[in-house]
Design a protein that fits this description.
alpha/beta, Rossmann fold, 6-stranded mixed β-sheet, 34% helix, 26% strand
């Protein structure tokens, strides 16, 4: 007997301002199944997810849940039908606590008032069950992007949905935190729920998915059992040609090369301590670590965001003082931040306005910016980085994730940095855009720019970094060259165990 589908999407189409985002797409989901939805940025994945969750309305087609045709009116209606979603763009209120965000729209009440103790207790139970180290009473705006991602996941699973949609749930997570997501998926599968899994981390697809649906330019390319595919086949179906995902292009740093940046005993209370390392000219220095390791906080401190309590920073052998972003920009230091949406872009502004944000002083007279003089620079960067569409007047919110990331990179390249810090440079973007950004980073290094790369994707660090710093709990555990993922994780796990033993004593 054929099992009834939890979800059926039949011939669904959607267009925006005459541009076809989806064209007669079919998709189905069975109980206890993980069905991966893959494609390049702009392929239509997010549009399909938003239609299923009631964020946008379809133009044509039919959706069935448990065999019954439904017209999903809005996200609240979708939730009543048993659909929960972890969106790539986090739907959270930063000034509320973790627990308050987890129960947002589903609050516990007592005598007509919010029952905060109950919400905190229920949040703690989920956190404890999956080994997630978060304080349910912490305001969300005090957490890193990765910690906020974990809070968003807890919110979705607290609703106990029968259809769980995960849109890039591990984009900001390291392998260890990703394992938590996989455990959650296994629990939901056993309970008979269905999971739609959207990810640009192709290796995850083969770990957890039963089926794979491929979209390209809004069209359904095919629906396949995972057993009939391999990584190269999936990428070729997505892109339409062969693409090298993690082309290893490391170089070997030698002691004779010039040291560009020296960091000595840098500390910030309760965040990181006694951080010391050298960065060579033209080197790509990676930083590996788990959520809460202090990687992003260190990057922000080097860029003038966040207080430095003690320590010394030398640039070209000269001591420098970093107390603001203005200081670092004057020194030729730039930061590609962890979250392009909240930290790197003004989404309602144009490509040109975003790209020139960091150099407005060059084009301002009496406090008024003359954008006529910025056009040539912007056009050059659009062509150099192959930003699509090639129009500086486009609102950046309507660009794909990969093109948005290129706009942030272009913004900082226009400042002509000597040192570029890139925090999660390929988070949430497709394999083609990843390949382009990797090559751009290497080209910058070859031109003499020194680069610090932070990434939760260990294969990315191993393929592109000349050396790696391994961090945990705000400390550097080791500096490694020509290492392996197993060696890095072993160092981190040994330190975690050592810290737990010390806490028990």
């Amino acid at each position: 007997m054929t099992q009834q589908n939890l979800l059926e999407v039949e011939s669904v189409s959607k267009s925006y301002f005459g541009v076809q985002a989806l064209k007669e797409v079919n998709f189905s989901l069975q109980p206890g199944q993980v069905h991966a939805l893959v494609g390049e940025n702009g392929a239509g994945k997010s549009t399909l997810v938003k239609i299923i969750t009631g964020v946008v309305k379809k133009d044509a087609g039919e959706i069935k849940i448990d065999g019954q045709s439904v017209k999903i009116k809005n996200p609240h209606h979708a939730r009543t039908l048993g659909v929960a979603t972890i969106f790539q763009e986090l739907s959270q209120i930063p000034y509320l606590t973790v627990a308050e965000n987890v129960f947002l729209g589903n609050e516990s009440t007592k005598s007509g008032l919010l029952d905060r103790p109950a919400m905190i207790q229920q949040t703690m139970e989920i956190l404890h069950k999956y080994g997630i180290e978060l304080d349910p009473t912490a305001p969300l705006n005090t957490l890193s992007t990765a910690q906020r991602q974990l809070a968003e996941i807890v919110k979705a699973i607290s609703r106990k949905p029968k259809i769980l949609i995960m849109d890039e749930p591990t984009s900001a997570l390291s392998d260890l935190e990703a394992d938590i997501v996989f455990k959650i998926i296994e629990d939901f599968k056993k309970a008979g729920a269905g999971i739609i899994y959207v990810s640009h981390r192709m290796d995850e697809i083969f770990l957890i998915a039963n089926r794979v649906t491929v979209l390209r330019d809004g069209n359904l390319i095919g629906d396949y059992p995972t057993t009939e595919l391999d990584l190269n086949k999936v990428v070729k179906l997505m892109v339409g040609r062969e693409v090298e995902i993690y082309e290893t292009i490391r170089k070997t740093v030698t002691p004779q090369e010039k040291i560009k940046l020296q960091v000595r005993n840098l500390s910030r209370k309760n965040v990181f301590s006694n951080i010391s390392f050298d960065l060579y000219q033209g080197e790509i220095l990676g930083i590996a670590g788990l959520v809460g390791s202090g990687r992003s906080e260190l990057a922000q401190a080097l860029f003038g965001i966040g207080k430095i309590d003690s320590g010394e920073i030398l640039l070209d052998d000269e001591p420098v003082k970093i107390s603001s972003v203005a200081d670092t920009m004057n020194l030729g230091i730039a930061l590609l931040p962890e979250s392009r949406h909240t930290q790197g872009l003004v989404l309602s502004h144009t490509v040109e306005q975003n790209m020139t944000l960091a150099i407005l002083k060059r084009f301002a007279q009496a406090g008024i910016v003359n954008y006529k003089n910025t056009g040539k620079l912007v056009t050059e960067k659009i062509n150099e980085l192959d930003i699509r569409p090639r129009d500086g007047r486009k609102i950046v919110n309507f660009l794909s994730g990969g093109n948005q990331q290129k706009v942030v990179i272009a913004k900082w390249l226009l400042t002509k940095p000597q040192i570029l810090i890139v925090d999660e440079p390929t988070s949430g973007i497709d394999v083609h855009a990843k390949s382009e950004i990797h090559r751009l980073i290497r080209t910058l290094a070859q031109s003499g720019v020194s680069i610090i790369m932070i990434s939760s994707e260990m294969p990315e660090l191993l393929a592109h970094c000349d050396r790696l710093l391994v961090m945990n709990k705000g400390r550097i555990l080791a500096t490694l060259q020509q290492t392996t993922q197993e060696k890095i994780m072993s160092l981190i796990m040994e330190d975690i165990i050592k810290n737990k033993m010390a806490a028990c004593n």
